Amino acid sequence: MAFPSFTSGLWSVSLFTVLMASTTPSLEFDVNPLQPMTSDETVAVGGTVTLTCRVAESDDSSLQWSNTVQQTLYFGAKRALRDSRINLHHSTSTELSITIANVQLSDEGEYTCSIFTMPVLTATATVTVLGVPGQPQITGYEDAIPEGGKVTLTCTSTGSKPPASLRWFKGDLLMQGRPEVVEPEPGTSTYRVTSELSLEVGRDDDNALITCAVDHPSLNPGEKRSEQQLRVLFTPVVDIQPESNLPREGERFYLQCRGNGNPSPQSYAWERKDGEIPSLTKVDGAYLVFEMLNKSDNGVYLCQIDNGVGKSQGEYTLQVQDPTAMSTSSGVDHAVIGGVVAVIVFILLCLLIVLGRYLIRHKGTYLTHEAKGSDDAPDADTAIINAEGGHSGAEDKKEYFI
User: Fold this and answer.
1) Both ends of the chain: CA-CA distance in Å?
2) Does the bond joining 186 to the residue before it have cis omega, within 30 degrees of 0?
3) What is the C-alpha separation between 244 and 259, in angstroms, rounded?
4) Among candidate residues 42, 312, 20, the one with its CA nearest the CA of residue 162
5) DSSP per-residue string spanning 82-127
6) Ordered domains of the chain (ranges, CATH)
7) d(CA 137, CA 276)
8) What CA–CA distance (Å, rounded) separates 207 from 151?
9) What pTM was computed for the model?
10) What is the pLDDT of residues 95-115, one digit of tens each?
11) Model confidence over 237-269: pLDDT tens digits?
């Protein structure tokens, strides 16, 4: 009967524990201070990763790091595996940190930190190794493309893990390529990524720069890219330019035929519309030279350029100027200017004359008013009285004359 009693006691203790836990929801259990703590790490191929293991307290037990196949790397501060890439970073009674340099894809996996207590406590850290993509390669462009033609470029990047992303640019403009094709590379954990870009080119695409850029967590933006410059073949646009001076009769004059095609113009052909080129005119490649202009040279001249891709034509209307007429016209202009100046001078003189007469008239009136009392006055006193407005004298004078 003692056995059932003992069992009953155990059930009583368990029931008490459950009741306490259910009636005390705020009760927290402390984490074991000897439990190792680690963190996962990510590193690119060729880089260096640091693995750190810590405990909250120390009981003088040693910490140990082991690799993915459970080989001991470090036991405390003591090296356990002869690998020059693995070195001690920091060691105390509560921490053990090691570094792995020149990381390879084979280094990826779970690393274990252990503390040799009773029982042994462990923690794991997962190391993720990124496969760095290689320099992208652009293929599919072999030679210059005729205007209006199409070209398909292929960009390939290898060695990425996880698979890289590829982006296309024409200059600074982001282009839309076809969906990427991702393929595992045999014997490795890396991937081969391929993308295509198809373009219909025009003359504005001549010398355009097409770029394929790789995006990947192991790279900085734009760190790896390849460029391909396009060459587009197109017919020239013809522009006929005269020399700087005006085409005057009896003088030398020339026209220059220009074209901006690709490739450069290979041949020029001059002709005169509705007639033949004058006999005194010389054709010299892109130039049409008039040794001595004549009125009979007037007309429309055509220049045709052939650059091997196509032919284009431009025209120029020549109007020969008569030097005599130009001189007469110049003389007429000078005469008009002289006439205008003469009219202005005449108007100014008239204004001066009118102003002078006005001033003189007002001055005479003043003098006459001052001395009008002296008329018919026998002496000075009488003259003053008459000047001050002696009306009686005026009336007497008026009656005398009547």
Assistant:
1) 187
2) no
3) 19
4) 42
5) --TTEEEEEE-SSEEEEEE-S--GGG-EEEEEEE-SSS-EEEEEEE
6) 41-129 (2.60.40.10), 137-233 (2.60.40.10), 238-321 (2.60.40.10), 339-402 (no CATH)
7) 58
8) 14
9) 0.65
10) 999 999 999 999 999 999 999
11) 999 999 877 899 999 999 999 998 999 999 999
